[in-house]
Each structure stands twice: as C-alpha cells, then as structure tokens.
Amino acid sequence: MSWFRRQNNRPKKPTESRDLPDGVWTKCENCSEILYFKELERNLHVCPKCGNHFRIRSHKYVEILTDPGTFQETNANVVSKDPLKFKDSKKYTDRVKDAVKKTGMNEAIVTGTARLDELPVVLGVMDFAFIGGSMASAVGEKIARSLKLCLERKEPMILVSASGGARMMEGILSLMQMAKTSVLLARLRNERIPYISILTHPTTGGVTASFASLGDVILAEPGALIGFAGPRVIKETVAQELPEGFQRSEFLMKHGFLDRITPRSELKQTVGNILRVFHDGVNASSHAGIAFRPRTSVPLSEHDPVPLSDHDSFGASEGGNGSMPILELPDPDGSTTT
Amino acid sequence: MSNFWLEFEKPVVELETRISELREFTSGSNIEVDEELKRLEKKADRMRHDIYTKLTRWQRVQLARHPRRPYTLNYIGWMCEEFTELHGDRAFADDPAIVAGLARIGGKPLAIVGHQKGRNTKENIHRNFGMPHPEGYRKALRIFELADRFRLPILTFVDTPGAYPGVGAEERGQSEAIARNLREMANLAVPLVTVIIGEGGSGGALALAVSDRVYMLENSVYSVISPEGCAGILWKDRAKAPEAAEVLKLTASDSLEQGVIDGLIDEPVGGAHRNPEMAAAAIRLQVEAAFEELGNLDPETLLQKRLEKFLNIGVYQE
Q: Which class does domain A55-279 fall in?
C-alpha cells in the first residue's frame, strides 16, 4: 500500500541503480564507499565495507538459495487482470505492461521447485522492481499454488518477501490474497510441513500482515525495513519523531518478531541446516513404527512439474496427534501423488 | 453528534421535521391540513427515493462513517438477550477498540467479537476510533479459540478505519497479530459469520473476517486502503477521496460483484441510523439463517468449504 508513496516521494533516489547496478563503479548508499561492481557482485551485492545489503532482483535470490541447475519455474503464465478497470495517471494495464518490460518478469513473484543443499523445496521470491513487489491476485494465486504443491509433495516452502503490500489497483481482491495465502499456511502447519519466511528490504503492509509473518522460522537480512504501516504513515499519525532504527530488522529482532538476522551469504546454509533438523526430527518419529505416508492430495494445475523426489518429504505421520483434517479435494486423474 | 446530518441528508431530515411538527401542531385541533400533509409526505417519499437510490460511492463512505451509525455494542444490545463481555489478551493489555464476549441470540449460545468505535470524543479516545492495537487482535483470537473449545458459533462485527499505525503497535507486532488471526481462523471448527456494519478498513478488518459467511450492510464499505490514503498516493491530495472511492469500488454491491462477500443486508431507507432497531432485526435474521445452515455441516466439511471459499477469491489470467 505504501510502495507507491515511497517511490514518488523520493524521486531523486536512484532506485534503478540500487536494483540493478550496472556501471563499473558504484557507490554504497549507506557508507558512500566507492565499490568496484564486479567485486560487489562477487560479494552478493553486500557492501564489503559496511555490510549494507543492496537490493537485488528475484533471480539473484534463486541463484543464491538453490543448487545450480535445479530450479524449475512454475506457473510463470499466471498474470494479472484488471478487475477494477483501474486508472489514475496511467491505466493499470499499462503499468503492468511497463513493469513486465522493465523487469522481464510476468508478475511480482517468481515461484518454482528446486533443491536447496540437496533438499527438495518449493520456492517463491518476490521482486520489488515489479510494481513495488505488490500483492495482486496473480501473486496470491502463485503463492497458493506453491503451497498446494508443498502439501502434495510434503516439501518445505521457502518464501522471500520484498513488498510494499497489497496492490491498490486491484482493490479489495488484493486484500483478500492475505487470507488466501494464510488459510493454506494453516494446512502446512497442521501437516508439519516447514515454512521458512525470509524478509528482505522492504517488506511492509499486507505482505507483512500475512504470510511473511507466519514462518515456522523467520529470517531477515540485516537492515531491512519491515513493518505493518510505512514509516511515513506512522509519522503522520503519531506526529512525533520515530525511534532510531525503527522498523529495521534489528528492531524487530529485539522485539521478538524474528528468529535470526542472517546475512545474504549465510542464507542458504542457515535454511539448509534448519530444514535438515526438521526433516530428521519428522523422519525419526516415522521410524518409530509409523509409516511415513502422505494423506493429502490436491488438484494441481497441469503446469506443475513432476515431483523431483518421493523420499525427502515432510509431513504429519499417519495417526498423528490430532492434527486438523487435511485437504481432501479429489485428485484430477484419480491417482495419488506422493 | 446527535444533531449531525450529512449535507445530502439535510433536505430530507428538514422536510421530515416539518411534517412531524405540522402533525403535532394540528393534532387535537380542527385545522384541516390533511391535504397539505399528504402533499408533503409524497414530496418526502420522492426526495428519499431520489437521494438514496442514486448514492455515489463517496456518499456510502460517509454513511458508513456516520457519527450516528449504530456500532457493535448497539447491535449486540438489540440482537442479544444476554451478553457477557470478556476482556484482555492475557499478554499485554485489554484493547477497548475490540469488544468480545459470550452471548445468546434467540436462546442460542455464541461468541461475539467486533470492532468498537466511540460515540463522542471522550469515548473515541478510549476506543481509539475503533483502530485496534495488536492486543485487540490477540484478544479476538483468544475468544475465537475459547469458542472453538466450547463449540460456540462465532459472530464478528467489522467496523474499523484500519489497524492502528503507531509506534507501540509496530513494537508489539501488529503484522504478526493480524497474520496469525488470518491463519488461525482457518482452523476454528465452529461456524463463523461476519457482518461488516460500517467501515471494513483493510487488514485490520480482514483479521476478523476470515469467515464461512461474510455479509455487508448495504451502506458499509470494504477496502484495501482508505479513500483518503488512496487519493494521497494517486493524486497527492487527500481531498480527492471521493474520486478515490469511485476507482476503489469499495461498496457492498461492489464487493458482492467481485465475489468477496456472500451477501448484502438491506438497511432502512436513509441508512441504519435512521432506524437502528430495524437494521438490527435485519442483521439478526440473516445471521440466524446462516448459523442454521452452517450448523448442519460437520466440522471437517465446514473447514474444507471455508478454505475453498478463500482459495477461490481473485481475478487473474493464465
């Protein structure tokens, strides 16, 4: 909700250069150090001097988080419509077209399957460069389909958030995506399928107030702006100066809303370690005489790829201790996928 | 507040006052004014028809925010034989912007949770204008889970400009509190019915509305952002809120058309504040019917249908 305001009120800030530094030299926004771009790139776009995490695009996170060559994109063709025929200074449909052109993406999130440290995972990465990473119906749908895939395959979900919140141009439907994603996360939780939420700069509004805050484990990059309302709105409301470091990762950590602040270079290893612990815990219990079998089947779109694996999975074991009834929609072809 | 009328209401209210004065003045006397009264009544009818069948979206917003509009506790008073309010989130505080408790409607037990606005300045400071802090949402969830445990259906009333955007709210996890409600409401194995009675302000409204049935009063609104906030972003001018209300399509019939809600509850002509008890009766009728219908479903089916309902919301192409 606030992405647009921020962009417009800081017209002089070279967000482009922060998103895609492509010169030979670039300057750190935080410490003003002049950095050799190649070196910055090698350092995962983290300033070697002050540790400032430059904003990077979704495909970079895919690269950083997944084992080489294992990422298979899903539902790339799920894209926005214009339910409200929304128009301000620009038609919403044109705004989307421009974003597609600028980012090379179809929507503000890329989803897919991959391996992370050899573990099969379902991954979603939001991209702030696409209309402020705002949550449209198509974004909610792609996340929902990813979560259904997790339920079907008993594979963990990893979501990297970067968003200004709900996409205003889709009105109330964008708000409802908060509910759509959260109700499915209830199922993952009941099924003991891990969900790791990774928060990056910035994550605010309806995204923070739904799936981003619901991880079994929540990690954040250092210095990321994370909040419900944007700082400007709060400042206007309370009419006072905001505390030092307000709504930054470190502030949230201090107040108990993050598990860890994890530098970009350590994200993959940290997620991998956590998932392995969960995985071994769940499988240890299934060795105790209980078969490890999924009870869920969810209809998936024909665009979803075939399962990568049928053994490295998560989930409630048969006869588990009173978890909620699980998704029991009929399988489209009558077969049970594992 | 009791003298407050919106600009477009004034002509009707003035005419109605004239009619009732005339009636009072002539009652008991033998002055013959029947013809005049009939003429004025006819004029009032026509005027009401002209105004209330052509309300703009912004006028609906104004009605939804009307200082005389009935609030959650008013409806509870008219609808329930019994209401025992319960307080506190057991962690930080009791948030007066959300009221919750155990109740009976037509003898049947249930839990009720709703946003609560204040009627005057003093009350509004106490109720924070119906804008909850995280502890409000946590109180709501505590009562939801209590209801689930004791097999009580849950009725929620939505009426908030939005969750409060303040320093303390952020420190105590406004996002987490809202997000958790969205997730946990999917797990409540009892019928959940929501009525949006005034303002359905963004995530702060949705956090009480992940329900099996969501109804809106005819003149209530449901929106991702306030018209003022939207106008501020789009045109750098909060005064353009009426235009923003148009583009946001935030009325009850807009929501129904977009498949976001399950039904619309008619208000008395002129709005719920013109005849609050009639509005309460209409809500009660709808709510009782919904609970009746949902009560026939076994818990598993109920949860499955709730999930599918929210999974089906959204407009996209592929």
A: alpha beta
